[in-house]
Amino acid sequence: MPPRPEHVLRWEDVELAIDLESGARAVRWTVGGLSVLAHHKDDAVSHGMYPMAPWAGRLRANRVEWQGYQHQLPPTYASWALHGTALDQPVDILRSEADADGALLVARVAKSPTWPWPVAIDITWELRGRTLTTEISVNSEQGESPAVVGWHPWFVRSVGRGGPLEWRLEATQQVLRGDDYLPSHDVRPYDPDAGPFDDVFVVPSGVATLRWPGALAIDVVNDAPWFVVFDMLPNAACVEPQSGPPNGINDGLGRPIPVAGPGLPHRMVTTWTMRDDPPVEPA
Fold this sequence. Notes:
- Strand 1 and strand 2 (14-19) form a beta hairpin.
- By secondary structure, the chain is an all-beta fold.
- The model has no long low-confidence stretch (mean pLDDT 94).
- The protein is built from no helices and 24 strands.
- It has strands at 6-11, 14-19, 25-31, 34-35, 49-52, 63-66, 69-72, 91-99, 102-109, 119-128, 131-140, 145-146, 150-153, 155-156, 166-169, 173-177, 183-189, 198-202, 207-212, 216-222, 226-230, 236-242, 259-260, 266-276.
């Protein structure tokens, strides 16, 4: 098969390769020669780091209900309408820049016929030094649309040196999941030792840390208070900043459902700051 079109952002020892046929997904992310993204499976939901929009995660009964209107969405993975419409759509480049300090890519995802509201989804990757700033923006072209967005990165457990991946959230609460793996309204205090997880967490500060001890760390700051963590696999883990919980376009779990309106896009901005994690000297 011919290679898929990619757009590469570079700064010194940092490189990100963005797949232009898969929702502006990062398929490679290397820092100092260390590769941090996992390829768990070949299907659209199981590799790289991709945007989820105009919804994130699962939807109850694969349905969106908004202002008295109900719309059934087709399954996209197993029996689920999963992770939005952006992840498997081609994109058009709206803006591309590169200089000595880094690089910028702004891409617009092709519209999906399965989403009933006319929206444009824009994905921004901006690399400045060792800080990556990402933005997902849902722009409604007519009327209001519910919108929840998120990033779904698959991180490797091992980068080839140092210790295995450790993650930390400044979470205050964990939302218990039901038998259908969707969040309930049963909330408990966050216990980091209660895993493994496939759960949603409330993180008021938006702060998380990924660390491969003795090799590399990535500090994450999100401008929304939701994270999903999936760490049930031996070789990969997902720490996912989101602007709402799974099924959040139907149920904000006590918070307003985000809305994209004409001239009032729904946005989520996340920064990912990379730093070396020095080896621990033996005592």
